[in-house]
């Protein structure tokens, strides 16, 4: 192809390289210059234009783009008509995009003027998703280059194809240990159902069994016998070794472990296995969360009937760090200096603030502000705040809102920091945001207490603080009573940005559910589950504390 400026009088039959806009004249790039165009250019006072002329062996950009795109496209991929040197490829079904990287590289190595770009390999797609594009850079390329690119694509065909979702019936087996609440398993099922929905699949069988090899073996055999095409096992305790309960159960069922452990974080503790020719996944703890993790990568491939081998998983490390792992300190964080007089074997004391929420309107009390109700001669809110002050937490921040002046008066003389929440009527989340924002920068976290729980004492608060251990992954600490979670809750500073984005009147329950792997539980007495919301509850607590 010849390229360069020529007088308008010598431009007949050439392609216009740059669009021309002058006066009322508009000629688009790529226009074939004929007699009419030459006359219009001359009338506009343009004496010279940049043009391209094809050599006899040249292939035009649209023809070349269409040829390359057609050679690249595999099953369930369609090619649109080429335009301005580009031919786009689209998915014809929902599934995963399968790309032969080496093949695409070989096409792109033929000539810099011939290019093919795709979505990442194994990207989820739906019908109509653009999955690739073939673009010819100049107006034409030599025929030999076009032929070489097509040959390279055909030699490795198919280079780009869609693997449609095939698995429709999925079973979930959950193992049980003391302290694992039913609501955790219920949420796991909801999250799993949402993961399966784009593939048109559903949970068709579910089992909840003891965390024992024999029980898991029977459950896996049962759900496969009932027709499940894939089984997922959620352990009450994470798989720690190929000889642990869940892998042992798979082998006892006559199955084979393909891989345990993957270089994707979160998702390290994933097990891939098969029983009777059907895949069985031992889910890592992060799979209980809807956030993307290594489990998603493997599950999606298996849902499309694609094999996931030991080598496939070993190759997932580059790009496998999906997010900051909340249960592990960031590399840039340095441990606090230990004073010389401190025994090196003694863990450093944690500095945690207390945030007492005392802004509510007491709507369920039918009128009076429950926080001002007296028990044993002290306002309920003062009892809660004095318990925080008697604990190791420092400083103590109290969030006020409804009748804030009266609440402040009830706390007169106490060494606390009062912060007012003018948006308290919009829900509990606004008070959490206000309190967290007031925690000093040097605090490692905060224990969030409710002002209407007078039976929570300093002892419980201190036990929660003692259980807070970032180095061991205990970043959220929650009291439990017979498997039910209560209050107060200790939060690592790492979660402060997300606490600051809470909305509505549900507090931080959803955030806790999203970070199950960071939760530590502390057994507590029923006081940790008792808040004063109604006149009846107030009377019961008052009778207990006053001995009436």
TrEMBL record:
Keywords, comma-separated and alphabetical: Magnesium
Gene Ontology biological-process annotations: molybdopterin cofactor biosynthetic process
Record domain MoaB/Mog: where: 171-304
Gene3D superfamilies, A to Z: MoaB/Mog-like domain, Molybdopterin biosynthesis moea protein, domain 2, Spore Coat Polysaccharide Biosynthesis Protein SpsA, Chain A
One MF term in the entry's GO annotations: nucleotidyltransferase activity
SUPFAM superfamilies in UniProt: MoeA N-terminal region -like, Molybdenum cofactor biosynthesis proteins, Nucleotide-diphospho-sugar transferases
Signal peptide location: none
Presence of keyword Magnesium: yes
Name by which UniProt lists this protein: Purine catabolism protein PucB
Record gene name: pucB
């Amino acid at each position: 192809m010849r390229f360069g400026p020529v007088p308008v009088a010598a431009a007949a039959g050439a392609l216009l390289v740059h669009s021309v806009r002058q006066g009322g004249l508009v000629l688009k790039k790529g226009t074939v210059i004929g007699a009419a165009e030459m006359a219009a250019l001359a009338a506009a006072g343009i004496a010279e234009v940049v043009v391209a002329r094809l050599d006899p062996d040249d292939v035009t950009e649209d023809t070349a783009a269409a040829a390359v795109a057609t050679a690249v496209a595999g099953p369930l991929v369609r090619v649109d008509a080429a335009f301005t040197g580009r031919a786009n490829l689209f998915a014809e079904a929902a599934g995963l995009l399968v790309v032969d990287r080496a093949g695409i590289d070989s096409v792109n190595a033929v000539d810099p003027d011939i290019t093919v770009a795709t979505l990442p390999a194994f990207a989820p797609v739906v019908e109509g998703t653009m999955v690739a594009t073939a673009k010819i850079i100049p107006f034409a390329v030599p025929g030999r280059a076009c032929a070489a690119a097509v040959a390279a694509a055909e030699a490795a065909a198919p280079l780009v194809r869609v693997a449609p979702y095939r698995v429709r019936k999925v079973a979930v087996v959950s193992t049980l240990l003391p302290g694992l609440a039913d609501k955790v398993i219920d949420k796991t099922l909801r999250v799993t159902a949402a993961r399966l929905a784009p593939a048109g699949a559903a949970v068709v069988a579910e089992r909840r069994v003891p965390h024992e090899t024999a029980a898991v073996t029977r459950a896996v055999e049962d759900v496969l016998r009932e027709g499940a095409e894939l089984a997922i096992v959620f352990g009450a305790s994470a798989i720690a070794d190929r000889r642990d309960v869940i892998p042992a159960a798979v082998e006892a069922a006559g199955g084979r472990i393909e891989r345990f452990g993957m270089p994707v974080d979160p998702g390290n503790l994933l097990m891939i296995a098969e029983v009777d020719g059907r895949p069985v996944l031992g889910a890592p703890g992060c799979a209980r969360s809807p956030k993307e993790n290594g489990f998603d990568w493997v599950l999606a491939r298996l849902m499309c009937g694609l094999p996931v081998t030991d080598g496939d998983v070993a190759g997932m490390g580059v790009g496998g760090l999906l997010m900051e792992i909340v249960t592990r300190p960031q590399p840039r964080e340095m441990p606090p200096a230990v004073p010389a007089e401190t025994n090196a074997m003694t863990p450093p004391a944690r500095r945690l603030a207390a945030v007492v929420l005392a802004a509510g309107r007491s709507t369920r009390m039918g009128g009076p502000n429950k926080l001002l109700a007296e028990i044993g001669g002290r306002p309920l809110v003062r009892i809660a705040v004095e318990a925080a002050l008697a604990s190791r937490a420092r400083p103590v921040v109290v969030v006020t809102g409804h009748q804030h002046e009266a609440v402040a008066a009830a706390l007169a003389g106490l060494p606390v920091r009062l912060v007012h929440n003018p948006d308290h009527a919009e829900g509990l989340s606004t008070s959490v945001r206000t309190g967290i924002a007031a925690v000093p920068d040097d605090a490692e976290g905060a224990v969030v207490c409710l002002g209407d729980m007078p039976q929570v004492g300093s002892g419980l608060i201190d036990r929660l603080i003692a259980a807070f251990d970032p180095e061991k992954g205990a970043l959220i600490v929650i009291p439990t009573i017979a498997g039910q979670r209560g209050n107060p809750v200790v939060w690592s500073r790492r979660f402060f940005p997300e606490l600051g984005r809470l909305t509505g009147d549900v507090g931080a329950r959803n955030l806790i559910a999203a970070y199950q792997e960071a939760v530590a539980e502390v057994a507590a007495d029923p006081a940790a589950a008792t808040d004063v919301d109604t006149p009846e509850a107030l009377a019961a607590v008052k009778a207990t504390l006053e001995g009436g």
